[in-house]
């Protein structure tokens, strides 16, 4: 590797985007899912680390990363499901209390409805 220009230091998250095609056409068949291909430049420390790894170790690391991503997606899904269930329960309880108050108010003021309610609940 040659010398690095001032201000062009290596960073773990330095993402370099290749120049756009002068034709501005569609991305090629090797393009990433998000569109154009992105090049990530790693510092020399990481180049040396990857060079020391074997295929089996890299495959195991890939599996670990996949499992971590999968667990994170499932955690997010179940958290949203839990929040939706809690919201539905609280909303249903609030609606039931509100309607119970409204029915009690109506029964208190309408004698025919009061008689019907007493018939339903078996009160005197």
What does this protein look like?
With 124 residues, the protein is mainly alpha-helical. Helix 2 (55-109) crosses helix 3. It has a domain at 8-52. The chain is 60% helix and 3% strand. The model has no long low-confidence stretch (mean pLDDT 79). The radius of gyration is 32 Å and the shape is rod-shaped. The chain is built from 3 helices and 2 strands; from the N terminus they run ββααα. A two-stranded antiparallel sheet has the order 1-2. The longest helix has 55 residues, at 55-109. The chain starts with 14 loop residues before the first strand and ends with a helix.
Task: List the total number of helices.
Answer: 3
- The largest sheet has its strands arranged as 1-2
Q: Structural class, from helix and strand content? A: mainly alpha
The H-and-E topology, N to C, reads as EEHHH
Q: What share of the residues does DSSP label as strand, in percent?
A: under 5%
Helical fraction equals 55-70%
Mean pLDDT figure:
79
